[in-house]
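Hi team,

Filling in the usual template for the complex we talked about on Friday. All components are listed, including any nucleic acid strands or ligand strings, so the model treats them as one assembly.

SUBMITTER: L.P.
PURPOSE: interface mapping
COMPONENTS: two
RESIDUES: 631
SEQUENCES:
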Amino acid sequence: MIKDRSLSSLVIDIFVYGIATSVFVVTLFPFLNLISTSISGNMAVLTGKVGFLPVDVTFEAYGRVLSNWLIPNAFFNSVFYTITSSLYSVVITLMMAYPMAKKDFILRKPVWYMLVVTMYFSGGMIPTFLLVSEMGMIDSWASQVFPLAIAVGNLILMRIFINNVPAELEESAKLDGAQEVSVFFRIILPLIKPGIATITLYYALWKWNDFFNPMIYFSTYQKFPLTVILREIVLQGSNVDKFMTAAQMAQKDTEVFMEAYVTRLKDTALIVSMVPILLVFPVLQRYFIKGLNEGAVKG
Amino acid sequence: MDGTTAVARAPAKGPAGKPAKERAKRRPFFRTLWKQRFLVLLLIPGLANFIVWHYIPMYGVTLAFKDYNIRQGIFGSPWAADLGLHHLVSFLNYPYFWRMIANTVWLNLLLAFFLPLPGIIFALALNEIRLVRFKRMVQTVSYFPYFLSSVAVVGIFAMILSPSTGVVNSIIELLGGEPIYFLMKAEFFRPLMLTMSAWQAVGWDTIIWLARIATIDTQLYESATVDGAGRLKKMWYITLPAFKEWYVIGLILSFGSLLASSGFEKNLLLYQANPGIVSQAETIGIYLYRRGLVDTQFSYGAMVGFANMLVCLVMLFIGNLVSRKLTDEAIW
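RESULT (copied from the run log):
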């Protein structure tokens, strides 16, 4: 491309870089502000001095939040529900996607229609809830694993990954006398590993971030995942007390700085809950983009 | 024993018309099924999942016309009064019925039309940026909010918008204004929903729009350059029109997902945190949750859910029809 050095081009460049920079700042600012607030002094928070950078740095709130069982316990619950449910979902999605990817599979069409129907018609919130309850899954990890374990979108994506395996490989294996079973396990499976990884991450993020289902199915506090606990702390304002010492509790209503302190505790809880996603973010985004490209180009 | 052999033999003896043909038609189906038994075996768990968790609840929609009680369950509960239409009648008589419908349609129209726009503008900008490193850094950072839960997103906004300690109100006060209770005022509900969703989606959406740009024939740009078109003209006449098709399809699809839209969790969280904003925040989904699950009026809730699904389907059809007439884009 020929380099355009005209004035209008310069104006466009200013706009373009301006837009990109503002998206960058708007995305980052809330995080920086939250982090800064969580490690700033009460006085600075109350007087609104905290912007991008912390004032009077103290890590006391982190000590309080992490030394309480509430968030670590919810974190391990989330990990448990995420691992069990995504494992189950991936296995049955993969098992279902393989026959559905075979053009000559005799049940392909009827099953496909059956799936499409569920994309437009559904029982809805109440019948699903009642079914889960009649199955005795209320307040149990099973409610996070079994209901609605297959997302049709993920099934279609899995099918695309399977169809990407060159048909010649399968044919030549069959000519060599390989059975359908060994074709699946020894040829297809090893070749669609990246696809399996992508789908696993799709399911895992979905389950990790799910808030509505755990909220309606769990009633015992100790079983709540991170999202539900986080809502209690940050949005409902309950349970923030649990992070305070007895001395702090005693002055809760008289201490002027208590509002700032509560804000810092809430911010700390938010930041702590986002750290796991931040740690896996590089991997997540790479595989998510892969899935998006695969689905958009061929789906 | 004797009888069966006789029956089995009979067709072979008779005129070799019908039975032989029938057999020729039927046997290959079961024979193929047997040959493909490994595939059938793989299919079973997934199929069972769909039957149990999609088709039984679909039958459970009949609860909307029944009086659910725990002892008799989904299959045994008796029919409701007024020929089973009791819950429909009381739903239509809900004093705020039309307010709720209007809230739902408004929120979804706003989200459907405006939510893609920041992503489109950002993608156009990114596409013009030649500093690869800068571009990649901005892009990667902008993806991050997409991976957060709606609880975290609503939580972040609740903190920065807090009237006493939030940074936004500090800035407003610094400029001489009064602190605003953003989360407690009904009139801020829709702008807030739009802002939060846009903040979360703006970066991630660019992937789709940039992928669309990548499919545009580069010859179009070259011949435009030869004809003397500047960068702005090329953006306006070549890049932007390429987005139309996907924008319209996205629009149609989001018409049909009134309840399933990711906005539901955010809507619910904002409503739960401040039920005072009910006049704008009560959409069909919120009402369904409140009456069906919180008040445990299961049959009534099933009716609301059923109505919601019908509204979704109708909207999807209308959206598709209008779009076909106006723009030639349609999903069917």
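MY TAKE: Chain B touches chain A through 97 residues (CB under 8 Å). Residues 18-88 of chain B form one domain.

Thanks, L.
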